[in-house]
Write a structure and sequence with these properties.
Elements lengths: L6 E8 L3 H15 L4 E4 L7 E10 H7 L11 E11 L7 E7 L3 H20 L12 E9 L2 H12 L7 E3 L1 E7 L5 E8 L2
């Protein structure tokens, strides 16, 4: 029997409505004007990762696509709130926008949905995640530090970020595709 050799770099994610994406895209345009050596995320790739799965075999991908499809948590709302960097502003590697929920119920539904995706990941044969879930939207990845990076970090510490609210109605399974674009390979309504 032939060994399964195809690998798919996948993750469960949330997509935002157009006004939120437009807001984040304009934030990226502003931040990129500093000229720091950053690989900025394309507008079409902006998302919130619920659970990174890594490299999946065909069999694991099939299991990941077998996630439950009914009555997960109900719709909820999210918005981009605040800017920051991982692992921190002093040694930034990733520039992000935070994610906030307008109500405690919205926050609770986000956390419950993230917990579901952790269960789905384990059912797919992916090891348990031990890091705490920190909801964020990656805006850019720093390639090299330099003088302009300090200007960018200074801007991040003082710039307000408050996007329009998005109604979240589904969770998607995304796969890294050709040219760095993400391909939607699965989608589940959450209400």
């Amino acid at each position: 029997m032939a060994q399964d050799q195809t690998l798919h770099r996948c993750f469960y994610a949330l997509r935002f409505e157009e006004p939120t994406i437009t807001y984040l895209s304009s934030m990226i345009a502003h931040l990129s004007a500093h000229g720091a050596d950053v690989a900025w995320v394309r507008e079409a790739n902006l998302h919130l990762t619920l659970r990174f799965l890594g490299e999946l075999s065909d069999v694991q991908l099939k299991r990941a696509l077998a996630a439950p499809t009914e009555g997960l948590v109900g719709t909820f709302e999210l918005a981009a709130q605040g800017l920051g960097a991982f692992p921190g502003l002093r040694n930034a590697k990733v520039i992000w926008a935070g994610v906030g929920a307008p109500t405690l119920e919205d926050r609770s539904r986000l956390e419950e949905l993230q917990s579901h995706t952790e269960q789905w990941a384990r059912a797919s044969g992916v090891a348990a995640e031990h890091r705490r879930f920190r909801p964020h939207i990656t805006l850019g990845r720093i390639r090299r530090p330099g003088d302009r990076l300090r200007e960018l970090i200074d801007d991040i510490t003082t710039r307000e970020c408050q996007s329009p609210v998005s109604k979240i109605q589904s969770v998607v399974l995304l796969r890294s595709g050709m040219g760095g674009m993400y391909e939607e390979v699965g989608k589940w309504r959450i209400c």
